[in-house]
Amino acid sequence: MSGVVVTGAASGIGRACAEVLIGEARAVSLWDSSPAVLDVGEALGMSAFIVDVTDDAAVASAVDGSAEAMQGIDGLVHAAGRVSVDPVGALTAPLWDAVVDVNLRAHALIVQALLPHLRAADDAAIVGISSIEAIVGNGAIPAYCASKAGLLGLTRAMAHQLGPEGIRVNAVCPGFVETPMLAGALSVPGLREGFEKASPLGRLAQPVEIAHAVAFLLSPKASFITGTHLVVDGGTVSVNH
After folding, report:
1. In what order do the strands lie in the sheet with 125-129?
2. Which residues contact 55 (CB under 8 A, 6 or more apart)?
3. Phi/psi of residue 143, each to 5°?
4. What does R_g of the chain's alpha carbons equal in angstroms?
5. Which residue stretches of 24-105 are H helix?
6. CB-based contact 26:3 (threshold 8 Å)
């Protein structure tokens, strides 16, 4: 038996992915920079590691620990993410790098670190969490938009390379989801209502709704799906793009 590494697993979409996968009898190794991931791992009965996904040595150590705990690794969900409100004119190199390193650079290097295990698996699959901000622009968060759009390009490139080895690579683009990352924005008067109005379904998503899409892409049901992205946004992009 082998299992799935989930980054950003202490809360939000990452934790929901871990819970859904466990519910489908998948083994999961939870990674997060927050020590709270250890409590989540204990509660879910799965291995957990405090990992800064931008630290290559920490990633290498967590790969070894996860592979040992799960007797192999056949999947990755890169849900760790960072956003910073820094429009052009207020940007600095450290602010830009802090977002892009977590959202984009880490995804490529984690996959690279996992490659020996993914290649040894029978049906390996990778899912990166992108965003509808990869498709539509938002002037307040250019680093976030760029990182999430870059993740879609990275998804296509890795799918091209790894497909012949039987490793599928896809992405999910959530819309507005009720998560800790969005909490600050949701506290701004009128913004929640604006997000809700943007979707034909008239509400925000819950993390578990994104997690079900991720679990599908990791499963044999998606055996001929690779190199693409699934938009899970309640129709927001379709009616506002």
Report:
1. 47-50, 27-32, 3-7, 73-78, 125-129, 168-174, 229-232
2. none
3. -65, -40
4. 17
5. 36-44, 56-70, 93-100
6. yes
| Residues 124 and 75: beta-carbon distance below 8 Å | yes
pLDDT digits (tens, 9 = 90+) for 86-129: 999 999 999 999 999 999 999 999 999 999 999 999 999 999 99
Q: Quick one: residue 90, left, alpha or beta (phi over 0 = left, psi -120 to 50 = alpha)?
A: alpha
Give me the phi and psi of 32, to 5 degrees please: -165, 155
Cα–Cα distance for residue pair 234/224, rounded to 1 Å: 24
Note the pLDDT of residue 1. 61
The CA-based angle 193-196-199, given to 5 degrees, is 150
The first and second tokens of residue 19, run together, are 């819970």
Beta bridge partners of 50: 32
Answer yes or no: are the C-beta atoms of 175 and 194 closer than 8 Å. no
Burial of 226 from C-beta contacts in 10 A (0-12 / 13-18 / 19+): buried
Residues marked active site are found at: 144
Q: Are 77 and 130 in contact (CB under 8 A)?
A: no
DSSP state of 224: T
CA distance 79 to 163: 22
pTM of the model: 0.95
Is residue 29 within 8 A of residue 5, CB to CB? The reply is yes
How many secondary structure helices (H) and strands (E) does the chain include?
A: 10, 7
